Amino acid sequence: MAKPPAAPEAGKQAASESHSLLQNPTLRLGLPFVNGGLAGMTATTAIQPIDMIKVRLQLSGAGSRSSTRPTPLQITRDIIAHGKVLDLYAGLSAGLLRQAVYTTARLGVFDSLMTQLTARAQAAGGSVGFKERAAAGLTAGGLAAMIGNPADLALIRMQSDGLKARAERAHYRSVIDALARIARAEGVAALWAGALPTVVRAMALNFGQLAFFSEAKMRLKGHTEWGARTQTLAASGIAGFFASFFSLPFDFVKTRLQRQSRGPDGKLPYSGMLDCFRKVAAEEGWLRFYRGFTTYYVRIAPHA
What's the CA gap between 263 and 297, in Å, rounded? Predict the structure, then answer.
């Protein structure tokens, strides 16, 4: 006696339940945040060595205009020669935490703002323009950067620890260990050191990444016959360039401020963002702010 095919019915039921779950308003609201965080963490894992090299480039030759200019390859060789290949991944736990917090909030807030702006524009019979996309990107970047600054600071401290003499190194075991020890030694407020350039950098970065990506993709779609994947890759490259150009000087200052420590006289080398800009420009030259642009671009482009 023939039995009814149970497997197809079970498959249909599972598919129906999955579709119903995805239609849940609460889940749909949270998906942009989750997707953004996972995408950022995946990109961070892939490009962590590049970020490490970028930080070392920014910290090299501090206070000297005529110092030698190490290349990314020289820095890579130096890190490996004084440790091991895995040292290129120093601070990965901090990088992952930063992306879990920063990118989740950044892309989630941007997506939510764009959804609201699109609905408002459609109701008025128009469409979202470059100005609205830029404003959404700036807002999302600034809010997310302030929230993620402690993880960002821990990342810089962990990546620059190898530049100290062995006896002076902190040897942070993880991002949690770094955050706890920094808070105990310097106070909780120290976790937000460099917050201003971090926020400005994020706003500039998002202005380039999100606004220019949307604009470039729209223009490429209207003026080329390229496939969707090619258009996306090209738009990412364009957005990554503008994001790097606008944000690198602030990223440079952020790195210097978050890594600095008090000297024998108890004073910090830089009193704040503007003081850092002024001293670096006077002592090292304006071009120092764009040192390692290519490395920074390679690090930023995947996130675009």
Answer: 33
- DSSP alpha helix (H) spans, the chain: 6-22, 25-59, 72-81, 92-98, 104-123, 130-160, 175-186, 195-206, 212-223, 228-259, 273-284, 293-300
| Residue in the structure block whose two tokens are 């323009």 | 129
Q: What digits encode the pLDDT tens for the residues 186-225?
A: 999 999 999 999 999 988 887 777 778 888 888 998 888 8
- 148-172 residue pLDDT tens: 999 999 999 999 998 888 888 999 9
Q: Return all residues near 234 (Cβ < 8 A) that are at least 6 apart.
A: 216, 220, 226
Does the global pTM surpass 0.70? yes
Give how far Cα 110 sits from Cα of 43, 102, 106, Å: 19, 12, 6
What token pair was written down for 243? 């994001």
Report DSSP letters for 117-160, one per residue: HHHHHHHTT----HHHHHHHHHHHHHHHHHHHHHHHHHHHHHHH
Write the DSSP string, 220-263.
HHHH----HHHHHHHHHHHHHHHHHHHHHHHHHHHHHHHH----
Q: Which sign, positive or negative, has the C-alpha torsion 8, 14, 16, 18?
A: negative
